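@channel sequence for tomorrow's demo:
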Amino acid sequence: MDKSLDLEGKIKAAHDHLRSCVLCPRNCGVDRLNGETGYCKTGKYAVIASYGPHFGEEQPLVGKNGSGTIFFGGCNLSCRFCQNYDISHEVRNGREVDQSTLATVMLELQGQGCHNINFVTPTHVVPQILGAYRHARDRGLDVPLVYNCGGYEKTETLKLLDGVISIYMPDFKFWDETSSTSYSDAPNYPAHARDALREMHRQVGDLRLNSRGIAEQGLLVRHLIMPNGIKESDKIIEFIATEISRQTYLNLMDQYRPCGTINDFPELNRSLTKEEYQAALQSAHTHNMQRLDSNDFRLLLKRLINLDD
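structure tokens (generated this afternoon):
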């Protein structure tokens, strides 16, 4: 990363935000430095739920040795269908760590050969990540950092990460406020997600790979396709194509399953259908997206060949 960046200034600015927390669009205003907690249920210290080499991520992140994932407890979203519900909604299922310990975890993952450090659900612990990065960098950390988030971000906070994060990987979940309000208690999610993608792309550009096919820098966008949500998926794909870049690396995720607390939403109480996934693939083709995830591209190609038969 850029050695000339004002890391100390970024750390101080982020740390000051914790006194009356406005890191994310929730703007809870709680004093996390004195143990108060807001929507994310996280105070002064980051909570690690688990960590280790992970091989279930996109291939440019996984490579041969895996992505060094650190799953944080807590979240600034409240997705009713969360597949990590016990981690994101139950902060007690983890351990608090100071910045030095978090740095040690990062270095341990690098020592295991991981191609990157992958922060999962990092939005509410940006100050802790920046502080830990300073320790880890001074102790020899030199792999890319991945910001793996739900897309509910503030551009002011993202700017503190400029020059530190190499790879942004948001999940753009909803296009309509009705959906984001009902399913994630975030009525202003769509606007913030759009602004976040613009800022992320401004910082790092399109995804760039090294000669071994491993991601070094850039934007990678995920979109979890929802039951009955193909209209929103189409709008999201169109936005990425026209306002971000058709070269955006896009992963259309088809793994939605009923999870979490969706009893009040019968429309979500089923798995995604093959037809819904194919409709999302067709949307990506229609909007001329150039870089689908390898699995998506393989299935789209198969579908187009079948259509020609």
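heads up for whoever presents: The mean pLDDT is 93.
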